[in-house]
Amino acid sequence: MKILILSDSHSSLHFMREAIRYFSPNAVIHLGDYYDDGTAMAEEFPDVRFYQVPGNCDKYRNIMGAPEILVCKVCGVKLYLTHGHCHYVKSGLWSLLKDARRAGVQGVLFGHTHATYCTQEPDGLWVVNPGSCGYGGRTAALMEVADGKISGCHIIGQLDLV
Q1: Mean pLDDT for each consecutive 10-residue tract of the chain (162 residues)?
Q2: Closest Cα partner for 15 from 125, 138, 150, 103?
Q3: Superfamily of structural domain 2-161
Q4: I need a labelling partner for 116 at 20 to 30 A (CA). Which of 40, 55, 83, 88 fits?
Q5: Contact (CB, 8 A) for 35 and 63
Q6: Where are the domains of the chain?
Q7: Judging by beta carbons within 10 Å of its beta carbon (0-12, 13-18, 19+), is residue 87 exposed, middle or buried?
Q8: 17, 8, 9: which is closest to 41 by C-alpha?
Q9: Helix or strand or coil: residue 17?
Q10: Are strands 107-109 and 116-120 parallel, antiparallel or unpaired?
């Protein structure tokens, strides 16, 4: 199964739309900035399961009831989803990793920095920032899941959609 991970779209939907069409994921995760973009894609692709959290720029966009941190199973794997601003990820990942490990997840996904990051920690925890699918970056992450485990994850960019 494939999970497409997006963040920081900032009202730029073109790359999001292209990536969903190209990879035909089983699920899409949008990690905020702007929450409405994830909602628009969910409406455009009703056959794909969407998960999303708001970002720091969304607090001005009247997102009612959306949790800033979502711990849930996606395609059979337990994930920790957050934009990252609540964990101050621009200053380091210590707080984020501590909370993710406490939640007992297989992967922690965040955005906010617009910088891609995709690695597996020695204890097996996947740590993924897809970068920015909006202006500037045009990046995302593609996570592979098999038999209830994350079997791999990598960063994709505009050139991967050719």
Answers
A1: 97 95 98 93 97 87 79 98 96 97 98 96 98 90 97 93 76
A2: 138
A3: Metallo-dependent phosphatases (3.60.21.10)
A4: 40
A5: yes
A6: 2-161
A7: buried
A8: 17
A9: helix
A10: unpaired
